[in-house]
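Regression test case RT-17, inverse folding.

Input:
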C-alpha cells in the first residue's frame, strides 16, 4: 500500500469500543511489567493514597480494544513500532468503563538506508461514561510494504 492509498484514511476514526477496567487485569499487567507498586494491587494501600482506590499503571491503556478503521486493511507483518507517547487527563481506575477509539492522524514517507518507509501516526483515545477524555495515546508505525 503506497502513501497515496493511506492518505484518504487520515482523520478517520474507528467506532468506540467499550472497555471495562478490572482490578485483576491491572494486577496481572503490573506483574507482567515487573512493577511491584502496591497502588496497582493492594486495595487497602490504595485507599490511603490521594487516588483512594486501585489505579492502573501508565501504559495499561495499551491493553484496551480500540476497534478498526473501516476500510483500512493492509498486511501487518513487518510493521515496526516507531514511537509511543501517552497524555493522561485523569487516572484510569479499577472499575472504570472507557470507550476507546483509534484514528489515523497522519501519514508521511521518509527515505532510509533500505529504501522508502511509510510512517503511520495513530491516535488512540479513551473516554469515560461521562464523555470526558481520560487519555490520548499517540504512536507511530513504520510500514515497508
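Golden output:
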Amino acid at each position: 500500500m503506497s502513501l497515496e492509498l493511506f492518505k484518504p484514511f487520515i482523520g478517520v476514526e474507528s467506532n468506540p469500543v467499550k472497555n471495562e477496567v478490572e482490578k485483576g487485569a491491572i494486577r496481572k499487567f503490573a506483574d507482567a511489567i515487573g512493577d511491584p507498586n502496591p497502588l496497582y494491587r493492594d486495595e487497602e494501600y490504595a485507599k490511603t493514597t490521594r487516588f483512594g482506590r486501585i489505579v492502573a499503571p501508565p501504559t495499561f491503556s495499551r491493553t484496551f480494544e480500540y476497534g478498526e478503521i473501516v476500510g483500512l486493511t493492509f498486511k501487518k507483518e513487518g510493521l515496526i513500532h516507531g514511537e509511543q507517547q501517552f497524555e493522561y487527563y485523569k487516572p484510569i481506575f479499577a472499575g472504570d468503563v472507557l470507550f476507546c477509539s483509534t484514528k489515523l492522524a497522519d501519514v508521511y514517507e521518509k527515505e532510509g538506508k533500505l529504501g522508502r518507509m511509510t510512517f503511520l501516526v495513530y491516535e488512540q483515545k479513551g473516554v469515560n461514561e461521562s464523555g470526558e477524555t481520560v487519555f490520548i495515546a499517540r504512536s507511530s508505525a513504520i510500514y515497508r510494504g
